[in-house]
Amino acid sequence: MTSEAQIAANRLNAQRSTGPRTARGKAALARNALKHGLTAKTVVLFDESKVAFERFHQAQALDFEPRTDGECALVEQIAILAWRLQRASRAEAALVNAEAERRRERLAVDPDTTLRVDTSIMFDWLNEGMSALTRYEAVIARQLDRAIATLEARQARRRAREGAGAQQHPADKKETQFAEGNQ
User: Does the residue 147 lie in any domain?
Assistant: First the structure.
C-alpha cells in the first residue's frame, strides 16, 4: 500500500513536471504517437523534405494540367495520396530491414540460433506490422485511383464543353480565371 509520504512526494513531483520546454523537445514529443505517418495530419513529415514535396506536387500539376479550382484541388489530393503511397513503401522496407538487422545481430551473438535472415520467414514474424501497412496502402491506393478518375472525368467534361463550342459554364469560367491567376 502507498504511504501518505509517497503520495505527497508524487504530487510534488507531478507539479514540477511541465513537459518539454525547448522547441526541439516539443517537436520530439509531437512525434511520439507517429508510427508510419500514413494517416498523419501533416503531409510532409519531419524526415521528409518540403521542397521535395513541392516539386512532386508541381510535377503532378504539369502532368495533369488542371485548369479549374476543382481540378487544382484534385491534383493536390492526388499529390498528397501519391506521396503517402511512397511513404508506405519506405515504411515497409524499413520494417523488413530493421527485422533483418535484428536477426543479423542475433546471429552474430548466437550462431546456433534458429533465426535466419530470410525474407520469406521474416514476413511471418512481421505479419502484424505488415498487415497494417498493407491495409493502409490499399486504402490510399483506392483513394488515389478515385481522385485520378474523378479528375479525368471532370477534365473530359470540360474538354467536351470546350470542343462543342458551348458556352463555358459560369462556375468553370470563374474557376479557370482563379486557376490561371495562381499559376
Answer: yes
Residue 23: inside a domain? no
Per residue in 79-126, pLDDT (tens digit) is: 999 999 998 888 888 887 887 787 778 777 877 766 555 555 555 556
Answer yes or no: pTM beyond 0.70. Answer: no
Q: What is the pLDDT of residue 136?
A: 86
- Any domain includes 10: no
Mapping DSSP onto H, E and C, the string for the chain reads CCCHHHHHHHHHHHHHCCCCCCHHHHHHHHCCCCCCCCCCCCCCCCCCCHHHHHHHHHHHHHHHCCCCHHHHHHHHHHHHHHHHHHHHHHHHHHHHHHHHHHHHHHHHHCCCCCCCCCHHHHHHHCHHHHHHHHHHHHHHHHHHHHHHHHHHHHHHHHHHHHHCCCCCCHHHHHHHHHHHHCC
Which residue segment(s) compose the domain that 82 sits in? 47-157
* Residue 84 contacts residue 161 (beta carbons within 8 Å): no
Contact partners, residue 108, CB within 8 Å, separation at least 6: none
C-alpha 144 chain-centroid distance:
12
Residue with cell 520469406: 120
Identity (one letter) of the amino acid at 66?
P
